[in-house]
Design a protein that fits this description.
The complex is a heterodimer. Chain A is an all-alpha fold. In chain A, 86% of the residues lie in helices and 0% in strands. In chain A, α3 runs antiparallel to α5 and α3 packs antiparallel against α8. By secondary structure, chain B is α/β, with parallel strands linked by helices. Chain B contains 3 helices and 8 strands, in the order ααββββββββα. At the A-B interface, α2, α5, α6 and α7 of A face α1 of B.
Chain lengths: 261, 161
């Protein structure tokens, strides 16, 4: 019994310590005198690796998720004679939920794990330590550009995902299954509001982008500098990132759409 | 990869994001329709019962979309020792549409299970409703609430009329 309580206490203290350390870590890498022109080049480079390399998986999975939504939505709606509402169903579910969440999950798997592995390997091969010896702050040089790159890329990727997926739903619903094209877009435009649905979706994707990138860079920076440590840190990035996205998404949805006052 | 082509690629990526945002704004949420309602004027109308009418519901004349519901609130009036309750609905109507003073407002339902909307039927008066004008409760028809219809029907059946 006392060992159980001892264990619980240790887990709780560890969790608190990790949260505090990661917040301090983020603050130290972001707060400081900005060197804009020098950092813009680093940021550009990181956006290339974080954003553009994720583009292919985002576009392809977006297209297929949109097509599946169109197909499933149609087979169910047509039983109620409401196949006209397909556009509304596809657009609302994508813009509000699937766009930010699925992009976040893919982003954690594709870009988050790569960030952790890269930073972890830099640590294991003592590149970070030698940078400090040279008087370059690794937090500012390595961590900050990667954080901003993830933070900026994620909303862009989510927007592209939603747009492509709606096109996928259009292809299946209108061009294949024969829903009327005017009703598809018209119902969609009546149901989707820019301020409430699209903007809230963008806010969600920004929150997820921050969370995933933060977890990824912290895990990379704090991993055990061994090959096993890097492997574990990479796994943890994907697991923690996905769990964080799914749980935070529930609360964001409740606040944004659930009528919580 | 040289610095220049890297920057071009990132530029293209950001442009792609902006295009996606534009698609979502214009094609999906129909944002361009809002500019149509920038030039509009407000009317109020009192109803006995608005059923399931919601803000942003459409207002139409003969099926043509001419405006939206802006807000709905409860209106209390003291009428000889009692209180009269009605629903006051604020409408935004496009500037091009001029309405006569005896315009009638009905709450209609799109299809059997569809959303409620407001249908306006212009009358024959030569005087026009001014901006911030009011459609009195005598000139409005309430929403048809399906449950009330059914209970009316069953009670007339039971009483044998």
């Amino acid at each position: 019994m006392s060992t159980l309580i001892h264990y619980l206490g240790r887990v709780g203290l560890n969790g608190l310590q990790n949260t505090g350390a990661s917040a301090l870590f983020l603050m130290r890498s972001l707060v400081g005198k900005p060197k804009f022109f020098k950092n813009a080049r680093l940021l550009c480079q990181q956006m290339y690796y974080v954003g553009i390399f994720s583009l292919l998986i985002i576009v392809i999975s977006g297209l297929f998720i949109g097509m599946v939504l169109g197909l499933q939505g149609y087979t169910i709606l047509v039983q109620f004679g409401a196949s006209q509402a397909l556009g509304q169903l596809v657009a609302l579910s994508l813009v509000r939920e699937l766009g930010p969440v699925v992009t976040g999950l893919l982003f954690a798997g594709r870009a988050g794990s790569a960030l952790t592995a890269e930073i972890g390997l830099m640590k294991a091969t003592e590149q970070l330590a030698s940078m400090e010896m040279l008087g370059v702050d690794p937090l500012r040089r390595i961590i900050a550009p990667r954080f901003w790159a993830g933070q900026i890329s994620m909303p862009i990727l989510a927007l592209i995902f939603s747009a492509v997926a709606i096109y996928g739903g259009y292809m299946v619903g209108v061009q294949w299954l024969g829903v009327d094209s005017g009703a598809f877009w018209g119902n969609m435009q009546n149901a989707v509001s820019f301020k409430e649905d699209v903007v809230n979706g963008i806010i969600k994707s920004m929150v997820f982008g921050t969370l995933v990138t933060w977890i990824a860079i912290y895990q990379g920076y704090c991993c055990a500098p061994t090959s096993e440590g890097i492997a574990r840190a990479t796994t943890r990035t994907v697991v923690y990132g996905s769990l964080a996205i799914l749980s935070i998404d529930f609360f964001l949805t409740a606040v944004m759409f659930g009528g919580v006052q | 990869m040289s610095n220049r082509s890297l920057e071009i690629a990132v530029g293209l990526f950001v442009t792609l994001g902006v295009i996606a945002l534009l698609v979502l704004a214009v094609k999906v949420s129909g944002l361009s329709q809002f500019s149509f309602y920038e030039n509009n004027y407000a009317l109020t109308a009192d109803f006995e019962n608005i059923g399931g009418l919601k803000p942003r519901a459409k207002v139409s004349i003969g099926g043509v979309h001419v405006g939206r519901v802006k807000s709905i609130e409860l209106n209390q009036q003291a009428v000889n020792q009692g209180l009269l309750f009605s629903a006051r609905v604020q409408l935004l109507i496009d500037d091009h549409v001029k309405l006569p003073q005896d315009t009638q407002a009905d709450i209609l339902t799109a299809g059997l299970l569809g959303d409620n909307y407001i249908g306006l039927s212009p009358g024959f008066s030569e005087q026009l409703l001014s901006p911030d004008g009011h459609i009195a409760i005598e000139n409005t028809n309430s929403a048809i609430v399906l449950e009330e219809l059914i209970s009316k029907f069953t009670s007339t059946k039971a009483s044998g009329f």
